[in-house]
Design brief:
This is DNA repair protein RecO. Helix content is 42%, strand content 23%. With 256 residues, it is α+β, with helices and mostly antiparallel strands. It has 2 domains: 78 residues, OB fold (Dihydrolipoamide Acetyltransferase, E2P) (Beta Barrel); 166 residues, Up-down Bundle (de novo design (two linked rop proteins)), CATH 1.20.1440.120. The strands form 2 sheets. The chain has a 5-stranded mixed beta barrel. The N and C termini lie far apart (51 Å).
Length: 256
């Protein structure tokens, strides 16, 4: 029976029976997987508080013959992110980031760059207040690393260049996954309206790192529009609205 030690982020936990838990992990080497933590609820001695969402840990796992569920033997915490857990907005952002990584990836499909991005974003939240620009940069980075990056500087339908300054209003096609050039947007084929300011902000954030994005605040109008557009795009991709997204939206004024 194969035993593994994997660096992982705890995405979520689900109680099972009277004393056990099923833990969803996002690992650096094997992507998303589920592990059965026997006795995790009955005794805090074995796992302590290590199985809390968005904790980074080294998980000692045992592969089961069926292959669909690992056995979680022991854990060693690398980062608990105590700075996040005392702030409701940081908790909301961290929970949403973990949900997004979980929804955008398949089981056992490694995404080391997305894993690192998630760890970097959690570390940023741990040491600084939650900022809308940094969250938008994380969303765009997660979409890119998962293979769903929206096209923002070229038409998603015909490939023609799209420049935000060419017109005050543009369009974004959810099905084609990107901005539309004026001819395609004017063809009557639909698309979600987006202002030049919001499109330019999204393009800038898609090219910026998390640290840089956190230092470049968005205007309230562009920030709100970028948030709504990305929320709709993610919902279109995964087929439903994330519960963590709903909670995050309720805290919108606090994030502003």
């Amino acid at each position: 029976m194969t035993r593994l030690e994997l660096l992982a982020v705890v995405l979520r936990t689900t109680d099972y029976g009277e004393s056990d838990r099923v833990v969803s992990l996002f690992t650096e080497e094997r992507g998303k997987l589920s592990a059965f933590a026997r006795g995790a609820r009955a005794s805090r001695k074995r796992f302590g508080g290590a199985l809390e969402p968005f904790t980074v840990l080294v998980a000692s796992l045992k592969e089961r013959p069926s292959g669909d569920l690992y056995g979680l033997e022991t854990v060693s915490v690398r980062a608990a992110f105590g700075g996040i857990r005392g702030d409701l907005t940081r908790i909301a952002c961290a929970g949403y980031a973990c949900d997004l990584a979980r929804e955008l990836t398949r089981d056992a499909e490694p995404h080391p760059e997305l894993f690192q991005l998630l760890c970097d974003y959690l570390a940023l939240l741990d040491r600084a207040p939650a900022r809308p620009a940094a969250l938008r940069a994380f969303e765009l980075g997660a979409l890119r690393e998962a293979g769903f990056a929206p096209r923002l500087d070229a038409c998603a339908r015909c490939g023609a260049p799209v420049t935000a300054g060419d017109a005050p209003r543009h369009a974004f096609d959810l099905s084609h996954g990107g901005a539309l050039c004026p001819p395609c947007a004017g063809s009557g084929a639909g698309g979600t309206p987006v202002s030049a300011e919001a499109l330019d902000a999204l393009l800038r954030l898609s090219r910026a790192g998390l640290e840089e994005a956190a230092l470049a605040p968005l205007t309230p109008a562009a920030g709100a529009e970028a948030q709504r557009l990305l929320a709709r795009f993610v919902e279109h991709l995964v087929g439903h609205r994330l519960a963590s997204r709903k909670f995050l939206d309720e805290l919108g004024p606090m994030l502003g």
